[in-house]
Queue: 4 jobs
Job 1
Amino acid sequence: MRYLASLLFLILLCTCGPATDNTVQSTTDAEANDRPKVVFVTGDEEYRSEESMPMLAKMLENNMDVQTVVGYSLDSTGVIDPNNLYSISKLDELEDADLMVVFARYRQLPADMAKKITDYAESGRPMVGFRTATHTFKYLEERDSALMTLNEDWPTKVFGQRWIIHHGHFEDGHGRLTDVTLAEGKEDNPILNGVEPFEAYSWLYHVAGGEDALSGDSDPLLMGHSLRSKIEAEGQTDKYPMDQPVAWTKTYTGSSGTPARVFFTTLGHPYDFKEEPMRKLALNGIYWALGMEGEIPEGGADATIIGTYEPNNSGFGDLYKKGMRPDAK
């Protein structure tokens, strides 16, 4: 009898115990697979995207049920080096990403790396771009001639404009250079929930006016007015007006035939992200791009910084923080 009881216990343990464990594991895997995946493509030697984008990624993971991946320009030892124009990590993650966020400048990536970015753009999946994404690539060598359309044509079609000119640096980070206000009639757009007018450290990019216009169905949401302008001093405001769109939405239809949602802003100085309206704008834009605008609170996304955000000022050369490594996840 004791043997039969023991045998019965073993049978129950084998049939019931593992089934419960498998159910829990299966549910966990399913939930993980259902979480939107947001991949940040960073790589700029001027605006400290290696600091601002992981800050946004942390807020996204805190606010939304999403998984984030941040790719960086790295040196051969795995240390972040924004001056390395020839490589960005984690681009393989774009293959199954639900959103690509680009803050890169004048990259000269090998063709296979560039293709991972452009293949994503052609897929019909949504995109978000910051500031220098209007000049993500800059190919100059004859050997890269097949890639030169990425210099200007690609950002114009995908993000709405190429790099043209801006209104002047004026000692980066030492004063606010652009007055940012809501575009007329856009007050009810959910991307602008909680976004109050503010003054940005970003000098104003020219994107429209004179001989230039935003491409496709670009729809401006925020306007910027240059508070200090070298262009004004040079008497060229007819060609490059003092008022410019600084954030817009559009669609891009690539080879897939599926229109992709695109949110873009020409703002992005590292100190801009110290301003709550800027952080709300960025997060709200990501919500919208993912088709989750109905989940944007009336007061905007929670833009509370996780931990600290004390970025280095903008600028070239060795002004970035040395020795930084990607956060381990």
Note: The mean pLDDT is 91.
Job 2
Amino acid sequence: MNIGVGKFKGFMRITNNLGQFQMLALDQRNSLKKMIIERKGSVDERDLVKVKRSILKSLSGKVTAVLVDGEYGFPENLKYVSHYTGIILSAEKSGYTVDEKNPGERLSNLYRKDICEFAKRNSMDAVKLLIYWSENAHRETKNHQMRMVEELGQTCADQDLLYILEILTYNVEEREKTKSILRAIKVFSEEKYKVDLFKVEPIVKSPDFELNRENVYEFSNGKPWVILSGGMDVEKFKDIVKWNCQLGASGFLAGRVIWKGAPLYIDAPELMDLHLNSTALYNLELLKSSAAEAIPFFKTPYFKGLENVKLTIR
């Protein structure tokens, strides 16, 4: 297969020396605000910057990449990222807007229109776009989401920048969740979207749907995928990580499951640092251990080994 030097370099920068992803999500904005408000009753920009900075100082050297937003602590907080750690920039605004024509349906929006060019100019290793997806949404809503994914994918291709797509499904019954996740991956695995790596909700066992590595890869067109945590407890997530890696996941991109205790010490920086360098570090190492069987990105069916990859230049 052919891949641009920029995209290939992105893959190499955000994986370990085995080609596995062990990434830390730190682009939370609205959810982090809520956590801080619950603790101290109010929140301002300095609080978010402070928490993000402490997490980067304590944990960035222990992961293959960090996912950051461009609103709180950017670019100053990048000084606290380990030299050996890749940096991914979020493309979307936090949260979503409600479709006025179709109440209850969610529309994603870009943080800035030139996000790919901005990321490339500022030497980011990849961009990540989060979209909300419901199979039951009206055609207009789905068209908006698909158009955004496609346009950003094309711009990333033009910039030769690694493109990560995060998909959050909604308005689906729990027993149908796994099928819905897989069908969503299949939609956006079409080459016109130019997605390089999927970040998806964990795939769980389904009594009426057989799961194995081969049929999961069929949905992703053989492309690599990682799972998110959604803030669940680490004891539960570690088992999910192990199972998903057995199904073909190439690792994880997790946030709150690792560091969600940090905002509890927003008014005591020394205790926040202590928590991050003990409990949060333990959580991270637990997940890394569970992801030992993660499939290297270059061993996925899409790549078929580094020996079959041809690098191209723009």
Note: The domain at 2-312 is CATH 3.20.20.70 (TIM Barrel).
Job 3
Amino acid sequence: MANSDSTHTQDQANREKRLVALSSVLAAVGLTGMKLVIGLATGSLGILSEAAHSGLDLAAAAVTLLAVRISGRPASERYTYGHGKVENLSALVEALLLLVTCAWIIYEAVMRLFVRHVEVQTSLWAFIIMAASIVIDFTRSRALYRVAKKYDSQALEADALHFSTDIWSSSVVILGLGLVWLSGRLGLTWLAKADAVSALGVAGIVIYVSVQLGRRTIRALLDGVSPGLRDEVAHAVHVPGVLEVARVRVRQSGPEAFVDAALTISRDTSLEAARDIVARAEAAVRQIVPQADVVVEVQPVVAQDEDQITAVRMLAARRGLGVHSIRIYEIAGRRTIELHLEVRETLDMRAAHSQASEFEGALRKALPALGEVITHIEPVGEGSATQVATREEEQQINEALAQVLMERRLQCHPHQVRVYRVQGQLAVSFHCQFDAGAKITEAHALTELVERDLRTRLPAIRRVIIHSEPERSENAG
């Protein structure tokens, strides 16, 4: 459903962009024809330069129409980022066409100012056409800007910027024609040169706009971004849980934006937490660059404040080993670590000891401050799978547990009691409730006493696992 909605929105955007580009082409056709007829009739270089300018507007509008049609095509195997760059390319073509036109206008204006004399005939129609041009250009540029801003289209934005300059250039031409008309009324012959000067003014305006447009399109084609955008994105993706922003890359392809970020997180971050970090980073980017295609990569690293016990577990996990009962002591100024290392029970003594020695070496390398490493090797695996204890054994352990709790006067309400055998030896596990306000050290001390008493009464017990939990209130649940 989401994909169909997205497709419908994209189709609507492409349709609206094509319609506004087509209306721009039709308006350019009408303006070019009117200016050309009046320019030839009056001999005004200002109007002829505007006719040439409008002719380039027509070509630019046609290029824009073609560009928005192509850029709306979806990504393909060859163009994996889509066809959005066509819009940037069309804007560059517009800029180059405008510069070529300006070269001709400047050449002709210089010739009329210093080499040859051309009589300019002013008429009411010249003023009417130029005034109509201003009105049409104003309406057209507003429509283009609206759609360009709505869909972040650089081609339409370039077209809108292009046509908005026509308003100023047409105003300059009207000023030039007015001064030529005054020269005939006041007898000031030097004012007759105002038409050529106004043409230079048009050329100056167009050159400025063309250069700005060219710089923007070249920057877009080279995947440049606006100043500060990268820093803004880098700041946004530094969500809670991120240690460092390793890389941020932003590229624009027509109306589409692509953001690629690499974030470092602590290596003990869970998969669910890492996914949450990625989701929050993507959402933060889209607050800055709406509709962006965002790719966030997380790289686990050792955090500066990582607990040493966590580091031991992570190191063992990467080697496919299990560890438990990790203890770290300070002995004579040196840090000693003791742990139980779980290896496959199918290994012989030589292979098991080799794995333990390799793990100890890696541990010393990862934690240089460690002094002695004492490893207790124990087997685990399918061969150590549990077996159900006999009913007599279960009854024997339950009676012993009840006696221990009664002697210790410990109301722990044992439940989920399980009795099983591991490699022929008895094992027992159960849940024990304590006061919710009790300290964990107190609860742990009591469970150790219970474990010791059980082993004393039943030496056949290999392991005792007691899960401590707070008592539930009567209103809980």
Note: The domain at 229-301 is CATH 3.30.70.1350 (Alpha-Beta Plaits).
Job 4
Amino acid sequence: MAGVTDPGTTASAPPPPTTLGELRDGGAAFRPVKAEIRANLLARLADGEPTLPGIVGFEDTVVPEVERALIAGHDLVLLGERGQGKTRLIRTLVGLLDEWTPVLVGSELNEHPLHPISVWAHRQVAEHGDDTPVGWLHRSDRFGEKLATPDTSVGDLIGDVDPIKVAEGRTLGDPETVHYGLVPRTNRGIFSVNELPDLAERIQVALLNVLEERDIQIRGYRVRLPLDLLLVASANPEDYTNRGRIITPLKDRFGTEVRTHYPIELADEIRLLHQEADVSWRGRGGGEAAVDAPIVPEHLAEIVARFTRLVRESNHVDQRSGVSARFAIAALETVAASAVRRAAVAGETRPVARVVDLAGVVPASRGKVEFADAGSDPDDERELEVLDHLLRQATAQTFRARCAGLDLTGLQEHFTGGETVESGDLVPAAALLGQLGTVPRLAELLGRLGVPESEQSAEQAAAAVEFALEGLYLTRRLAKDTDGGRTVYGA
């Protein structure tokens, strides 16, 4: 994700290969994965470091609950509406594993050299003794994930008999004829089941032993594998009654249930947007001139954040479904893309998003919202009207919050003689400012919108002026006429 370095995927050089004897002589010891996570978590807490970096808005609510669960050694299930960061949180747990861990070379189960669990591993150690080869596994390879779907089988998760191994001459009673599934292959790591209620109930039963007895059963084989892993699941609350449910014995085996939520504070919503929205791309336009990465002014990010919160709170939206954080992220990326498109057409080298770029958000984001009173007509224009109204409301709220007490009468007086100002998604900044001439108190307006002096430019000025014009219109101090991509402000 943009703006975050995941400690689970950033690797230093691995330690050199070694042998079982050298590992033992070096003082190495086997440590269960939950003890490993607990120790690393406590070390981060003691050092004052973020335990789950990149997780926004959960610092005082969800994160402490997850920390307590991990310290207690609990498997956990995360409950929350779509787009609340459940999967992101689960993947961030990988950063609490040791960066490198020793494994027996060739083991399908990531077995620790000092703690073999399979028939194959015991035979390797018996044959080679202290010369048994040892390799190193990075923590990013100690994470397994399965999106629960109705067609998921026990073989996918746990394992099944491999007919090829049987054909090679092994007997059906030989444990080495088993092809292990995703869960045992994530031994000594973290395994995640996303959307757990979508998993058929008879398949959920296969996880009961994994959570309690820490072993697996495959087609009646006496396979006693003391699996060492942390199991984390995610679920949408309405899935308990709609698409499926988590069976009671399985819910009982999870040590902790954590309820997630959308960002509570507006500042967290904006911070999440800046972190996750990918607007760092650049392109070419205006002949061979390079188009720089777009700038999205802070007031536009605030409008998108307020818009998202208003949509979540709207009576027209299905509250059980929720409005994903991806709704806001995609909206901000759409705004940035509109600015880049304008720069490419107009030959500008520094795209800066403006209020006019918000127009593309409503049609682009419509499919991400489940409406409570959705009728049979998929083209019901009332949905677009609801979103458009909420976007105007978000813009007005942002204008009042950022420009309260700012004297804009000088800008407003420009229109007293019947003059108009035309804007649009393809109108460049210079053309917009040229219609206004000198803008009174422009520096104060830019300061209110948080534009530092070093970044003040014609494009930033145009973005600020257009926001002021839109605010004057929304507070009924200017008129506005919109026709397609053309917007005209007047007295």
Note: Residues 381-403 form the longest helix (23 residues).
